[in-house]
Structures are given as C-alpha cells and as structure tokens.
Amino acid sequence: MAKTDQLAIKTVNKVEEIASKANGKSPGAGPRDAHGKNGKNGKNSFKPDAGGKPESIARKLYASVAAIAAGIVARKVVEKIWVKVTGKTPPDDPHKLEVPWAEAVGWSVASGVFVGIARLAATRKAAGTWQRVSEQPPVTSSPRDL
C-alpha cells in the first residue's frame, strides 16, 4: 500500500475521532484497516456528504495539508533554482522599491507558477488517493474553497 494511502487512512481515523468527541457520538464505523475499510463489516462507512460532516472535513484537511506541503517544498526548490540561475538570493519582498522591476517580476512569475503547479499536482494526487481509500468520488473544488 502506498504511503499516501496510509496517510489518508490515518487522517480519516483521526478526524472522525475528533469529530465524534466534539459531538458526543461514536466515530463513524470505527477505524479503517489497511485498505481503508472499517473493521466491523469490511464495507466502507463513507457516504456522500454535503459538507461539514467528518468525511468532508477529512477530505478537505487532507487536500489542504497536501497543498501546503507541496507549496513549501516548491518554494524551496524554486529558491535554489533562482540562486543557480541568477547567482543572487531571491528578493525577500518584491514590493520593496530597492528591488529592480525585472527581478521583482521574474521572481513573482517563477515562484507563482512553480508553487501553483505544485499545489495543483498535490491537490489532484490527494483527490485520487482519497477516492481510492474512501471509494468516494473526489469533489472538484478550488484550493480557495478548502
């Protein structure tokens, strides 16, 4: 089983546990086994939701964590590429007047495109993993909706 699938299962179990404590109910159908199925009857306890339920919260949390992690890693990578290409460190704040226009625009475009693509890829991968683990079709949404 892929590490992303294991992470999704752990995330779902933890969110259901937290949600059940918050509303005083027992968690969904219990913890999932290695294949994302609950241990009680071997069937998946996920049902389509309208948002706000543990399944929806877990899906959004999982996609958000993936997008944030991808953004952080992508930013570090693009900073290293910038240093290799330009020989200078990237501007801390491209809005400052001391930063030349070409450098400010170049850094903004490079970091924005690279980080945006990384977040998109991570969110799509998270949706695919979620679908495999929960057998629930991924909800298409913008990262701003997460």
Features:
146 residues, mainly alpha, elongated
The total count of strands amounts to: 0
Write down the Rg. Answer: 20 Å
Q: Any idea how many domains? A: 1
Question: What is the number of helices?
Answer: 3
Class based on secondary structure composition and strand pairing: mainly alpha
What general form does the structure show?
elongated
What's the N-to-C terminus distance? 26 Å
Percentage of residues in strands: under 5%
- Show unreliable segments: 25-30, 39-49
Largest sheet: none
Q: Provide the residue-averaged pLDDT.
A: 75
What share of residues is helical? Answer: 55-70%
Q: State the assembly state of the protein chains.
A: single chain
What is the N-to-C order of secondary-structure elements (H for helix, E for strand)?
A: HHH
Write structural notes for this entry:
This protein has helices spanning 3-23, 54-86, 101-134. The protein has 146 residues and is mostly helical. The chain contains 3 helices and no strands. The two termini are 26 Å apart. It has one domain (3-145).
